[in-house]
Amino acid sequence: MTQATDIPVLDWQRFASGRDADGFAADLGAACRGPGFFLIKGHGIDRNLIKQVFSQATDFFAQPASVKEPLSIYTNPHNRGWAHMGSEALDDQSGVQDRKEAFNIGLDLPRDDPRVQAGEPFRGVNLWPEEADLPHFREVMLAYYNAAWGLGVALHRAFARDLGLAEDWFAPHFTAPMATLRLLSYPPASGTAGEIGAGAHTDYGAVTLLLTDGEPGLQVRPRGSDTWLDVPHMDDTFVVNIGDCLMRWSNDIYASSPHRVAPPRNKRHSVAFFLDPNPDSVITALPGTGDPRYPAVTGADYLRSRLDATYTPPEVS
């Protein structure tokens, strides 16, 4: 594979400090119109918190199946919990099952929240390991969830500026988002022909913030290209990519590029934060982007349509 030299590294502090907000937005817009991927440094999220997230994730995936099975993502309809090895096929063309485990955490709501009680879409309670097994797991993950949520919402201020909108245009759509913090674990390649860590796909939401442990594997195919490029790893940076929801919102001005994870040589862990809008947000062409290329759809209906095509139900014996 070819190294992705055209994936830019952007310094978030240019925008956050206000010293070069217009220049940052222009550079951001170029990345969003081109590869749909960029790296962000100067993000402001505490390094120690990030280390704790990776440590807790490693400990979770090391637990026996008897600990993880009660947290199965199949036990609830809200996209929360443990996805076992082989439960997903992100590449719906090939049908090859992904070789990875995952654990999903959503907006943390109590059981007595009116939205949970009413059965609103993607408004369920999170599934958590027993504190005796992983005593600090919940507090670390929720601290990181909130930090990544804040960064993702702030990035939308820069998207808005680039797209000629008021900086706060997106803010009402991310007050209680369907955001998912997803911990991922990929085993080393087995050498079996055709295997894949994560099949070729585009992300479903508005934007994805990804941290990796440095083990190679992530590859992207930019819009208009038939070549897979290795996404570089840089310490203390996020890999950020545009998802299908924001591509639809921007009326295809921004690119949601296919990407995949090749089977790694060594065990690989990554931490993805998928920022989807509020369930009732209506996704339609933004002002000033021309005639809509897609029908209007709510955030919840769009996410459900994508998830239903991804998961393989467990076999019943």
UniProtKB/TrEMBL annotation:
Keyword Protein transport assigned: no
Superkingdom of the source species: Bacteria
Domain Fe2OG dioxygenase: 173-277
E.C. number: 1.13.12.19, 1.14.20.7
GO biological process, one term: ethylene biosynthetic process
Keyword Ligase attached: no
Pfam families xref list: 2OG-FeII_Oxy (PF03171), DIOX_N (PF14226)
Cross-referenced InterPro entries: DIOX_N, IPNS-like_FE2OG_OXY, IPNS-like_sf, Iron_ascorbate_oxido_reductase, Oxoglu/Fe-dep_dioxygenase_dom
Recorded metabolic or biological pathway in which this protein acts: Alkene biosynthesis; ethylene biosynthesis via 2-oxoglutarate
GO MF, any single term: metal ion binding
UniProt keyword list: Ethylene biosynthesis, Iron, Metal-binding, Oxidoreductase
Catalytic activity: 2-oxoglutarate + O2 + 2 H(+) = ethene + 3 CO2 + H2O; L-arginine + 2-oxoglutarate + O2 = guanidine + L-glutamate 5-semialdehyde + succinate + CO2
Co-factor requirement: Fe(2+)
Record family assignment: Belongs to the iron/ascorbate-dependent oxidoreductase family.
Listed PANTHER family: 2-OXOGLUTARATE (2OG) AND FE(II)-DEPENDENT OXYGENASE SUPERFAMILY PROTEIN-RELATED
Record protein name field: 2-oxoglutarate-dependent ethylene/succinate-forming enzyme
Organism annotation: Pacificitalea manganoxidans
